[in-house]
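**User:** My hope is that you can spare some time for a protein that puzzles me. I have put the entry right below:
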Amino acid sequence: MKIEGLDELTKKLDSLATKAKELDGTHSVSISDVLTPAFIVEHTRFSTINELFAAGGFECETQGQFEAIPEGNLDDFIRAESPFESWQDMLGAAGQRWAASKLGL
């Protein structure tokens, strides 16, 4: 009995392992790379993360402005405008999708 396709499967698994090693550890990823327009459209009534922040009255032109947003205010807004319970929940879901895309899944 001959099993076909094992070479292709082995190549795909090797590629997945290589990509997983590249993702290992800590990475600095821009918020717009994680919260893509596709993700925002799927989970909110907005087209981009900038539209979402603007609708909430949040100024996010700089890292300092973003960090100055009271987390409770952001959580309340995300809860009202998305299926997520908090900003961290939304960011976590987007991060999982980002990682899956980097792995080619």
Q: What stands out?
A: The mean pLDDT is 84. Residues 59 and 65 are 6 Å apart (CA to CA). The first helix runs from residue 6 to 23. Residues 31-103 form one domain.
